[in-house]
Amino acid sequence: MRVLVTGGAGFIGSSLVHALIAGGDAVAVVDDLSTGTVANLHPAAAFRSMDILDPALTEMMADFAPEAVVHLAAQTDVQRSIADPERDRAVNVDGTVAVARAAAAAGARVMLSASSAAVYGDPEALPISETASKRPINPYGASKLAAESALARTLEGTGVDFACMRFSNVYGPRQDWRGEGGVVAILGARFAAGERPVIYGDGTQTRDFIYVGDVVAFILDALDAQVPLAGGSPDGAAYNVSTGTATSVEQVASYLRAISGVLVGIDHEPAREGDIRHSVLDPTKAAAALEWRAAQPIESGLAITWRWLSANLR
Ligand SMILES: NC(=O)c1ccc[n+]([C@@H]2O[C@H](COP(=O)([O-])OP(=O)(O)OC[C@H]3O[C@@H](n4cnc5c(N)ncnc54)[C@H](O)[C@@H]3O)[C@@H](O)[C@H]2O)c1
Description:
With 314 residues, this protein is α/β, with parallel strands linked by helices. It folds into two domains: 2-168 and 210-241, Rossmann fold (3-Layer(aba) Sandwich), CATH 3.40.50; 171-208 and 243-280 and 296-313, Alpha-Beta Complex (UDP-galactose 4-epimerase, domain 1), CATH 3.90.25.10. It contains ten helices and 13 strands. The strands form four sheets. Strands 3-2-1-4-5-6-11 form a seven-stranded parallel beta sheet, with helices on both faces. Helix 5 (139-155) links the parallel strand 5 and strand 6 (161-167). It is globular, with a radius of gyration of 19 Å. The termini are far apart. Bound molecules: nicotinamide-adenine-dinucleotide (NAD).
């Protein structure tokens, strides 16, 4: 299959590109390297350094003629979304529309677009299903939610099937530990440096941590799906891509300490304003539609991530 991946030099995108190429697919990557790196790029993937908002995207997409487009490029930093909501909206909403229009014009069969647990905001009940109320609490969550409806408006009636993948907290090799959101990478990097990690709040806050290999497996299954992915209802095209299991931040830190053997203490600082206490996404819909399930136990996923962090930080 010919697959175009936006954000293919980033954390999730590079893992996907490696898996696609290992499976014999032809891959093109569009990435402006704003957070992604050249080191993440696969040598067998065609690479174009380009902002998804660049009008030249249409021609580039038409030249490559992908059967499938996986759209992962985004402004992903919550703090930056608060500081510059216009740019966040431009990249995440207008950018998604631009990619969708280019995909349709190039004759793609399907487009999978990354959304986020951030669309739900503070949940009313756990685990959160796709139809739960959506009240994002920051511009990033709002732009991801707006991108979902913009994608549907752009692709409905074009013959291009589509899905919005609401990822929970993804972790694994190649996640940037200098970012603000990747708890596992940030804690792991502190252990690798022999420094005391900092937990904001008491550490009992929980997240649905999913290993990047499981996210890649979902995308590969969705690309191979023999049934339409986009349904008619408002959340018909949305899929939680998650484990359905809650793990506390404190538990992650204690696993990492045991795995690393770096027996430093853990510092606590006050909880950050706007942090959600508990977030677990119900993956039942994805499981029923694609017979996909997150399979990587968190202990072994963290061990793989630790090996990568300790090899790449030193
Ligand atoms: N990592 C997570 O836990 C998580 C959770 C929920 C949703 N997501 C979503 O998954 C997707 C991938 O996230 P990631 O964690 O791999 O982040 P990442 O920052 O590692 O990857 C994003 C990639 O997009 C590129 N990019 C950003 N803006 C661009 C633009 N205007 N034009 C072209 N390229 C651009 C970056 O250079 C980077 O390579 C994003 O859409 C993100 O919102 C991630």
